[in-house]
Design goal:
By secondary structure, this protein is an alpha/beta fold. It has 13 helices and twelve strands. The strands form three sheets. The protein has a seven-stranded mixed β-sheet with strand order 2-8-7-6-5-3-4, sandwiched between helices. It has a three-stranded antiparallel β-sheet with strand order 9-10-12. The chain has a two-stranded parallel ribbon with strand order 1-11. β6, α8 and β7 form a beta-alpha-beta unit. The protein binds pyridoxal-5'-phosphate. The site of pyridoxal-5'-phosphate has 12 residues, from α3.
Length: about 325
């Protein structure tokens, strides 16, 4: 068994989660007849303070649906240059929705400068695409958006007739870090997508939440994208279990990340980026030559880490305090040689 720090997506369902999956009551969800999916959707909508929710195959699908709900063909959305909903979703908004991105650089705290957002909104002119949507991300690189920022962004969006979509793949990590109810983080947001398959530990699935109208619209686009699932209540059961049992334990992952960062910072050759350390991600910088060597050395010792430099290390429910100690010891041994 590897100690796998590449991502929080690597967790297999726990035994308890597998049991609720096996026992789930199911039906044909395209007919709206899967009671477990309906329960999950209602539970999540309620948790986020939105009218309705839609179970989606992935966060990528949830974000694309958010964009499709708010934008028509030929419209555009403003989004972070390094945002998942722009950079890491294979250009789906452009290809499948005919919506063009207007990327802007993130500030160092994961926000988009709202003055720059306003300046990027294109005037009503025959030359331009219509700017229709602002898309934010929480957490971004493990950083929670500052409290109150999203509400500010919502005001700016409303003043300019834009809708606001939040990619909340790891929104629950932000809520746990800030110690506020998760619905407080999405006030004023028109749609929000959250992932069940990251730190929450479900094997599959995300949810898009918003108004009845938005979710009604999204349901149709989801069908078109091939996301109309049948007896997927077995997956929804895992998601419901994750939302009910695995949110508060995210604190453990954050504590493990902090321990890891502290342990690594004493090692000559490693620079820990403490500025980004809030939730379950640790970023470390090392020389280019060491970056490759370290990842190879750790793999030989049954530890997997991300590639690149800075290197990303992600904690999750498959990582114990003992694992963290082992990783620190192994990194120390590598840099001794
Ligand atoms: C993982 C992730 C998503 C969704 O990814 P899927 O693999 O499609 O579920 C969206 N946004 C962010 C920031 C993510 O990390």
């Amino acid at each position: 068994m590897y100690i796998d720090l590449r991502s929080d997506t690597v967790t297999p369902p726990t035994d308890a989660m597998r049991r609720v999956m096996a026992d789930a009551v199911v039906g044909d969800d395209v007919y709206g007849e899967d009671p477990t999916i309906r329960e999950l959707e209602e539970y999540c909508a309620d948790l986020l303070g939105k009218e309705a929710a839609l179970f989606t195959t992935s966060g990528t699908q949830g974000n694309l649906l958010g964009i499709m709900v708010h934008c028509q063909r030929g419209d555009e959305y403003i989004v972070g240059q390094q945002a998942h909903a722009y950079r890491y979703e294979a250009g789906g908004a452009a290809i499948l929705a005919s919506v063009q991105p207007q990327p802007l650089n993130f500030e160092s705290d994961g926000t988009l400068d709202l003055k720059k957002v306003t300046a990027a909104i294109k005037p009503d002119d025959v030359h331009f695409a219509r700017t229709r949507l602002l898309c934010l991300e929480n957490t971004h690189n493990g950083m929670a958006l500052p409290l109150g920022y999203v509400q500010e962004a919502a005001k700016v969006a409303a003043m300019n007739q834009l809708k606001l979509h939040l990619d909340g793949a790891r929104l629950f990590n932000a809520a746990v870090f800030l110690d506020v109810p998760v619905k407080q983080l999405v006030q004023g947001v028109d749609t929000v997508s959250v992932c069940l398959s990251k730190g929450l530990g479900a094997p599959v699935g995300s949810l898009l939440c918003g108004s009845y109208q938005a979710i009604h619209e999204a349901r149709k686009w989801r069908k078109m994208l091939g996301g109309g699932l049948r007896q997927a209540g077995i997956l929804a059961a895992a998601g419901l279990y994750a939302l009910q049992q695995h949110v508060s334990r995210l604190q453990e992952d954050h504590t493990h990340a902090a321990l890891l960062a502290q342990g690594l910072t004493g090692i000559p050759g490693i620079e820990v980026q403490f500025g980004k350390l809030q939730t379950n991600m640790v970023f470390i910088k090392t020389s280019e030559q060491h970056a490759r060597g370290l990842s190879q050395y750790l793999k030989e010792h049954n530890i997997l880490i991300g590639t690149g430099n800075p290197i990303r290390l992600v904690t999750h429910l498959g990582i114990s305090g003992k694992d963290i100690e082992q990783v620190i010891a192994c990194c120390r041994a590598f840099f001794k040689n």
